[in-house]
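User: Sequence recovery, please. Input:
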């Protein structure tokens, strides 16, 4: 727990807060200026996320052990699928909220929820 770790952690926290705040406003801008659909945005975000995840698994050499784990533990695969479906439903409602009411209402909703 060196001071360098604290500084690095603080920088990562600031980056997260900045990018998290930017996300919904950029989504609103895409809806307004480019007339994209929520399905289009979900497709691209999830495709890029899947590519990053696959790339990480390949570069760290954990793709094969991960697949083996899923085949050896089918209940885990079912739980992961249910978690993914829940995430998709949440993402759909978030995109719907941003598209229909804007980023400010979404931010207020998230603050009230917490």
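Assistant: Recovered sequence (114 residues):
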């Amino acid at each position: 727990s060196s001071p360098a770790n604290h500084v690095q952690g603080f920088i990562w926290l600031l980056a997260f807060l900045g990018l998290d705040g930017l996300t919904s406003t950029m989504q609103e801008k895409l809806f307004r200026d480019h007339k994209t659909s929520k399905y289009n945005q979900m497709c691209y975000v999830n495709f890029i996320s899947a590519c990053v995840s696959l790339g990480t698994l390949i570069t760290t050499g954990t793709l094969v052990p991960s697949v083996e784990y899923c085949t050896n533990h089918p209940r885990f695969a079912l739980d992961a699928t249910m978690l993914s479906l829940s995430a998709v439903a949440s993402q759909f409602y978030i995109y719907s909220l941003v598209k229909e009411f804007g980023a400010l209402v979404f931010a207020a909703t998230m603050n009230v929820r917490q």
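The radius of gyration is 18 Å.
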